[in-house]
Amino acid sequence: MTGSWHQVLLTANPRAAMPGGDAVRIGILAYEGCFATEVFAVSDFLRIANHVARDSGAATDAFDTTVVAASPEPVTTAGGFTIGARRWHHRFDLLVVPGFELTPDTDLNLLLGDRSREIAFLRAAGRRRIRIASVCVGAFLLGEAGLLDERRCTTSWLFASKLARRYPRSTVCAESLIVTDEQITTTAAFSASLDLATAIVREHLGADVARATARITLVSENRTSQAPYVVESMVETTTGPFAMAVQRWLIDHLAEPYSLTRLADAFHVSTRTVLRRYADETGCSPLDFLQQARIGAVKRLLTDTDVPIGKIPRRVGYQDPSTLRRLFLDRVGMSLGDYRRQFRAR
User: Fold this and answer.
1) CB-based burial of residue 190 (10 Å sphere; 0-12 exposed, 13-18 middle, 19+ buried)?
2) Who has the most CB within 10 Å: 88, 101, 154, 166?
3) Are strands 152-153 and 171-172 parallel, antiparallel or unpaired?
4) Per-residue model confidence as pLDDT tens digits over 323-342
5) What are residue 249's phi and psi, to 5 degrees?
6) Which residues are within 8 A (CB) of 120 and not within 5 positions of it... i.e. 6 or more apart?
7) Pairwise CA distance, residues 231 & 158, whole Å
8) What is the mean pLDDT of residues 302-308?
9) How far is the C-alpha of 322 from the C-alpha of 264, rounded, in Å?
10) In a 3-state reduction of DSSP, which class is residue 60?
């Protein structure tokens, strides 16, 4: 460890990793088709955290990380890369489950059927009350093992609705970056593996070591939501023909003040009928959709145009700018100005 690292440590004072000073035993589950990055991002970050902790006074490594699989043979990951792994077992304090390659054309039933050994392994680990954390769509493996039942969870915003439909006994928090419910932790997409690793370091070594490791590796320290990254047009929805027609009408009139009466007149039905039929097909209200569509339009105006922030509210149907500011902050988790500064195309 070079002396320059000391300048980043901010007087870090690592606490004992486990009672008695034993290292935290972490197993990272490798399987055919998993993302190698989500395997190694966690292990490499924890390895660097070990160095940071030692440099600030720890006597031993805090984390003992092992890549495990169904058999001690090379595993072929997404993209055809192979990684070595040890035979799995249940002598871990934490199991990390990476995600896999999932596209709209993927036969999820077939893919998860091929992962029956991994699912059985996770189910057994759950019965032993081993802590388990998934990255991205690794949550589907936990769901198949029954580990999401009656629990809050998350995954990539792109597949959150799919997760919710497949495991209706779970509560999917689509905008959350990391969700922990009892001994089960789930995270958002891909780079959230680093947020997970940071959280692990913070839990076992304290905030100072976690902060120092994050700064050395250029990892964001305080992300809490994936809402700023959502592209509304890519979110999967299941709607009937009436709801789709209502949504098209609302988008066509996006910049106009919302009027349920006017909407009902456009479809020659009562306001009560609009609300009932739309809810039957979507589970929400037309106003919910309109607000989300307006948020998407605001994001595009902030990132792709030079429209002054003060003129954006009227562009998307808000006469009172404070209403949009409050809604955007509530839904996205940051102000209009902060969003433009962070995501503006350059």
Assistant:
1) middle
2) 154
3) parallel
4) 999 999 988 888 999 999 98
5) -65, -45
6) 145
7) 9
8) 92
9) 28
10) coil
Determine contact, residues 311/298, Cβ cutoff 8 Å: no
Residue showing tokens 């893919």: 111
What confidence score (pLDDT) does residue 18 get? 44
Please give the distance of CA 140 from its chain centroid, rounded to a whole number.
13
Strand partners, 185: 133, 180
DSSP 8-class letter at 78: T
DSSP structural state of residue 178: E
> Minimal CA–CA distance to 201: which of 47, 93, 58?
47
Pull the structure tokens for residue 32.
Answer: 């055919």
Amino acid at 125: A
Task: Tell me how many degrees the CA angle 114-116-118 measures, rounded to the nearest 5.
Answer: 110
Tell me the two tokens of residue 195. Answer: 């947020």
pTM (2 d.p.): 0.77
Residue pair 13/56 in contact by the 8 Å Cβ criterion: yes
176 contacts: CB under 8 Å, gap ≥ 6: 154, 188, 224, 225, 226
- For tokens 């195309």, what's the residue? 345
138 closest CA partner among 129, 148, 128 = 148
Torsion angle in degrees (nearest 10) through CA of 310, 313, 319, 324: -110
Residue located via tokens 């789930």: 186
- For residues 35 and 58, give the distance between their C-alpha atoms in angstroms, rounded to a whole number: 32
pLDDT in tens, 211-234: 999 999 999 877 888 888 888 767
Angle at 114 between CA 110 and CA 118, to 5 degrees: 135
- 3-state class (DSSP) for residue 189: coil
Residue with tokens 């306001």: 271
pLDDT at 6 over 60: no
Pick the closest to residue 88 from 25, 40, 155 (CA basis). 25
What is the identity of the amino acid at 194?
L
Say what percent of the chain tops pLDDT 90: 71
